[in-house]
């Protein structure tokens, strides 16, 4: 779709999804230092500190959304992207900022290059059987 | 591995171990249906922004001039235990999005290749891909009309599968059926791990 979208102030069209604004949100950055490591299933956890207390003027509402969403329930990168309706690449950059500001932690217990050990696989099988 | 700054006084939120299984297959093979049948959440979508060339956008400058599009990956979640969560990711079907497969495939526990017997050739690419990457996969023959005319042996032959690759019949709409498919993937992954260690 190449709709002109000029008729109103929407910054997206239905087919294309958000195009310009998300990257404006990251000030044009599409890479962050941590990005390579941020798998879609990496888990983001915000510690119980109010983002306000960091008094960080550079946080966007989307940064704050991420912190709030991951405060009580750890959230995967994929879930955050879906929840915020933003492309994964954008969410990675935002998480990178939050990591840098020490407002969130990201845990990735299973090194991505390896398979989880047999014990975990067995637990997965048992868990699936029990569903 | 990436960790944020650690803080000894942090709360005791349980951080689950997360695992992922990929669901591949041709157009309309039933990937979204399969994910939805076992997911505890309605399948969600994540999107990646792409330029015309089919690569993620690197830089905002010039974006307006190029055609950008998004590619969606749908995913579901199964909380097996409070501390163990399995994600299922439907892979984008088109060949030009394979770099997204690479990303999805990294660290994946295994994969499901959903086969529609009316168009078996649609899953050649997925079978090739997982074989080359050494990712454990199960071929799930989705029970569309006429699938019963296709016994396991002929699927195996048509796809030229390694003898160890499981082939299971499934109905992607049925939770129990999909559970069986997933268990098969994990069992196969376990054998593969044992074989290489
Ligand atoms: N009879 C039958 N129909 C099915 C089965 N699984 C899926 N369908 C139907 O097949 C159609 C396509 O299923 P989807 O789950 O959307 O397939 P998909 O692979 O996600 O499709 P794309 O994302 O477009 O490639 C839907 O109308 C489903 O209801 C099955 O096991 N048996
Ligand atoms: Mg689909």
TrEMBL record, chain A:
It comes from the Bacteria. It comes from Streptomyces himastatinicus ATCC 53653. Pfam families: DUF742. This is Multi-component regulatory system-11. InterPro entries: DUF742 (IPR007995).
TrEMBL record, chain B:
It comes from the Bacteria. Pfam families: ATP_bind_1. CDD domains: Ras_like_GTPase. One of its GO terms (molecular function) is hydrolase activity. This is ATP/GTP-binding protein. Belongs to the GPN-loop GTPase family. The keyword Nucleotide-binding applies. Coiled coil: none annotated. Keywords: GTP-binding, Hydrolase, Nucleotide-binding. Gene3D superfamilies: P-loop containing nucleotide triphosphate hydrolases.
């Amino acid at each position: 779709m190449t709709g002109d979208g000029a008729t109103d102030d929407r910054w997206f069209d239905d087919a294309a999804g958000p195009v310009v604004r998300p990257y404006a949100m990251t000030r044009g950055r599409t890479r962050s230092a941590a990005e390579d490591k941020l798998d879609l299933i990496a888990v983001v956890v915000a510690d119980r500190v109010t983002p306000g207390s960091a008094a960080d003027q550079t946080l966007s509402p989307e940064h704050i959304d991420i912190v709030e969403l991951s405060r009580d329930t750890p959230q995967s990168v994929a879930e955050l992207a879906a929840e915020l309706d933003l492309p994964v690449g954008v969410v990675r950059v935002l998480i990178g900022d939050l990591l840098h500001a020490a407002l969130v932690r990201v845990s990735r217990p299973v090194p991505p290059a390896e398979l989880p050990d047999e014990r975990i696989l067995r637990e997965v099988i048992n868990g699936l059987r029990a569903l | 591995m990436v960790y944020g700054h650690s803080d000894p006084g942090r709360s005791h939120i349980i951080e689950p171990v997360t695992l992922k299984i990929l669901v591949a297959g041709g157009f309309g093979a039933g990937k979204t249906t399969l994910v939805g049948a076992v997911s505890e959440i309605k399948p969600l979508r994540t999107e990646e922004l792409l330029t015309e060339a089919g690569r993620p956008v690197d830089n905002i400058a010039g974006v307006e001039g190029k055609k950008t599009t998004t590619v969606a990956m749908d995913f579901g979640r199964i909380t097996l235990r409070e501390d163990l969560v399995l994600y299922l990711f439907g892979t984008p079907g088109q060949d030009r999005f394979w770099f997204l497969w690479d990303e999805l495939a990294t660290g994946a526990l295994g994969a499901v290749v959903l086969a529609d017997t009316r168009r078996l050739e649609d899953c050649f690419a997925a079978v090739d891909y997982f074989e080359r990457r050494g990712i454990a996969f199960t071929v799930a023959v989705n029970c569309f009309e006429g699938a019963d005319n296709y016994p396991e042996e002929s699927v195996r032959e048509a796809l030229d599968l390694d003898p160890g690759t499981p082939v299971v019949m499934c109905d992607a709409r049925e939770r129990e059926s999909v559970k069986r498919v997933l268990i098969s993937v994990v069992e196969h992954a376990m054998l593969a791990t044992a074989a290489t260690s």
